[in-house]
């Protein structure tokens, strides 16, 4: 918060270590001093004679300072401006403290959907099930099995680069990821009828969607990640070819290491030690735009946020390993043949 009483420093370096605090006046206000030496008139400030004509305005004493403060307070009152309003204005965030639209100049890279998308492109299609549009995706849609693990709240800011980097309001975002032991609902053995850790949210006026889920585990051959697809609207999700972006989020190493010390994440710590972002078959070509901001802890859960700039004027590209072989070694076994 910007202080109401600002530190007044001389322009010369030798005074830089000794700031003086004063309500009035600031250094620029010395221009308001008037003196007519030829006529012998006493110097004045804002029309009032100085109590100590041979000293600076800031050295006129407490009585002079109080009179100046009161007169200015009355002037502010004429315009309906009080000290409280000034304080609020001082605390208000500036454009430099938030991400501006001009900051988004590069689209989020496209990546493979992998062999376990559940969007109808490789077997089952969860996007045709009533109830897939939901915020908390920890349980199967029918209320069955709930995935256990460290809680994570994921917020994605979906940016429409074509529309002056504004919010892509109305777009639909589908996310999915593995559970704590690296298995995928709908595909892994014994989980064919489960739909947990999959869900859709529609982008609001602020450009974001938020999911409550768990921190995914790490299986052999892959860096910890979250898959997602963005569709133009909710009606488009029934056809995977309508997606304007298919990509993946790379979870930070520090948080992953902390989470994988939890006993529920069997094998994840060992799997993480065998892969790096440089050797991962999806992120090895660059991951800077795909690593989110993260805060929290294993005990309290993690809050994750990422910007997803999308250029809808260009054809969606898919990166990563051709054929979607990103799940090599996953506990769920080989992907379906369809």
UniProtKB/TrEMBL annotation:
Organism: Citricoccus muralis
Upper lineage: Bacteria, Bacillati, Actinomycetota, Actinomycetes, Micrococcales
Pfam families linked: Dioxygenase_C (PF00775)
Residue stretches making up the Intradiol ring-cleavage dioxygenases domain: 144-220
Biased composition (Gly residues): 320-332
PANTHER family documented for this protein: INTRADIOL RING-CLEAVAGE DIOXYGENASES DOMAIN-CONTAINING PROTEIN-RELATED, PTHR34315
Protein name according to UniProt: 3,4-dioxygenase subunit beta
Source organism, top-level taxon: Bacteria
Biased composition (Basic residues): 1-10
Region described as Disordered: 1-56, 98-122, 313-338
């Amino acid at each position: 918060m910007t202080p109401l009483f600002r530190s007044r420093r001389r322009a010369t370096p030798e005074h830089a270590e000794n700031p003086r605090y004063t309500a009035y006046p600031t250094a620029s206000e010395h221009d308001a001093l008037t003196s007519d030496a030829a006529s012998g008139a006493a110097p004045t400030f804002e029309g009032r004679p100085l109590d100590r004509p041979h000293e600076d305005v800031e050295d006129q004493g407490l009585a002079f300072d109080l009179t100046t403060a009161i007169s200015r307070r009355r002037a502010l009152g004429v315009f309906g401006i009080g000290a409280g309003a000034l304080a609020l204005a001082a605390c208000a965030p500036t454009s430099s403290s938030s991400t501006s639209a001009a900051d988004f100049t590069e689209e989020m890279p496209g990546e493979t959907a992998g062999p376990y998308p559940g969007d109808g492109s490789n077997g089952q299609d969860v996007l045709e099930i009533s109830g897939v549009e939901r915020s908390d995706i920890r349980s199967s849609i029918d209320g069955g099995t709930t995935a256990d693990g460290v809680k994570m709240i994921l917020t994605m800011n979906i940016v429409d680069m074509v529309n002056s980097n504004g919010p892509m309001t109305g777009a639909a975002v589908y996310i999915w990821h593995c559970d704590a032991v690296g298995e995928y609902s709908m595909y892994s053995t014994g989980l064919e009828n489960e739909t947990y850790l999959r869900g859709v949210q529609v982008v609001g006026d602020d450009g974001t969607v938020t999911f409550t889920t768990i921190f995914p585990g790490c299986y052999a051959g892959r860096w910890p990640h979250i898959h997602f697809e963005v569709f133009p609207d909710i009606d488009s999700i029934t056809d995977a070819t309508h997606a304007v972006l298919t990509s993946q989020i790379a979870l930070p190493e520090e948080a992953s290491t902390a989470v994988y010390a939890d006993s529920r994440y069997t094998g994840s710590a060992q799997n993480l030690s065998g892969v790096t972002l440089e050797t991962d078959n999806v992120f090895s070509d660059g991951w800077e735009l795909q690593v989110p901001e993260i805060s929290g802890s294993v005990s309290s859960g993690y809050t994750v946020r990422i910007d997803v700039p999308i250029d809808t004027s260009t054809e969606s590209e898919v990166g990563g390993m051709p054929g979607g072989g990103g799940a090599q070694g996953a506990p769920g076994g080989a992907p379906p043949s369809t």
